[in-house]
Write a structure and sequence with these properties.
two-stranded parallel ribbon; about 375 residues
């Protein structure tokens, strides 16, 4: 059964986005970091039965058993006024010490107005909730999960200040997250807050587990399931990728560190750990074929890499155009190298958690997990 609302004296932590990749993985870490607190998870639900089913699914996914009574689901929605909470539920703010806001619209092809409705206005409403907690004297900090791609299309090795003058945004996701990021930074003059900017987040480095297969996984499943047989890219472009377990370990460690208050911090692998697209494709091909061989499946053919620089042959240029059309939402990230400096976060994380692992060390684990589940393709 779903736990009832806790006594007024209990300390609370509010989390949004727990049914997603980052928010869900943060939940278990929050329970460990604040053992005296009840975790309130804002979850969209049609009714009480649906809410409880989603709560149970969340607990099952992240393996919470003995502390399940510390997790309370609140039927709400960051896109609605007051987070869609009743006044009694909104009263949780008056004992909330920490707010973790990870809910977001992450689709690259979403119209800007729709992305703003969740990413910007949702963040504004979460900040309103935090201000209520602050007025009650309970708030310790707001933790906002932003993205390193608020820098827009600026190339090179970027520190956190790159987003102060971002390049043109490649989609509504980047722009709306930048606007939400600025809201949190502006509010940090009055509210204690930290902005965490992860790069591309993939599944757990130890198990491969992920609730969805997006971004890095998209080209893989498109190739495996016949949508494309070429990959338009600059093969030498390096990509910054972090596993969700490390990203959430980093966010939790920074959330516990008072020095991180008021800061904007990259949660990224850093230039030394970045992998080029050509290497990722080679490693993926080996991992996929290893999986297929173990299971007696027909071995997949490695896709052809086609660069926009290969325009001397009209046939190759035509291939690139066809691939670019199929991968239009992802293509900008495969043509321009963006890496993210980690000096600021490294200084705070030194000795707290291990360094971010390189993708090459756990990519096979991600592939095995994804292949078992057909990359979510039904």
């Amino acid at each position: 059964m779903r736990p009832s609302m806790q006594a007024d004296g209990d300390r609370a932590v509010l989390l949004t986005g727990t049914t997603g990749l980052v928010g869900g993985d943060l939940l278990g870490r929050v329970l460990a970091a604040w053992p005296d607190a009840t975790a309130y998870c804002l979850i969209r639900a049609r009714d009480a039965a649906h809410l409880e089913a989603r709560r149970e699914a969340l607990l099952d996914r992240i393996g919470i058993v003995d502390q399940a009574d510390r997790v309370v689901a609140l039927a709400g929605d960051v896109s609605k006024p007051g987070l869609g909470l009743s006044e009694a539920e909104a009263g949780v703010a008056e004992r909330t010490a920490h707010v973790f806001h990870a809910a977001a619209a992450t689709r690259f092809d979403l119209p800007l107005a729709d992305a703003r409705a969740l990413n910007v206005e949702g963040t504004r409403r979460v900040l309103d909730f935090a201000r209520r907690a602050q007025r009650a004297g309970s708030l310790e900090r707001v933790h906002y999960v932003s993205t390193a791609y608020v820098a827009g299309d600026r190339a090179g090795v970027l520190d956190e200040s790159a987003a102060d003058a971002p390049g043109p945004f490649r989609n509504g996701y980047e722009q709306s997250k930048w606007e939400a990021d600025r809201l949190v930074q502006d509010a940090s003059g009055d509210l204690p807050a930290t902005c965490y900017r992860p790069s591309i987040i993939v599944g757990d480095s130890r198990t491969g587990a992920t609730p969805h297969f997006r971004v890095l996984y998209d080209p893989m499943k498109w190739i495996l399931y016949g949508k494309i047989d070429i990959l338009p890219c600059h093969p030498e472009v390096r990509v910054d990728i972090v596993p969700v377990d490390w990203a959430c370990d980093a966010i939790t460690a920074l959330a516990l560190d008072p020095r991180a208050e008021g800061r904007v911090l990259h949660v990224t692998s850093g230039p030394e750990n970045a992998s080029c697209i050509g290497e990722i494709l080679d490693l993926t091909a080996v991992a996929v074929n290893d999986y297929e061989a173990r299971h007696g499946l027909e071995l997949s053919t490695k896709p052809r890499l086609v660069s926009p620089d290969d325009d001397s042959d009209p046939a190759v240029a035509a291939l690139f155009e066809a691939g670019a059309k199929a991968m239009r939402t992802h293509l900008p990230y495969m043509l321009t190298e963006q890496l993210f400096d980690t000096a600021s976060s490294d200084a705070l994380l030194e000795g707290a958690i291990p360094r971010c692992p390189a993708l090459r060390d756990y990519l096979a684990t991600l592939i095995d997990y994804a292949m078992e589940r057909r990359f979510g393709v039904r």
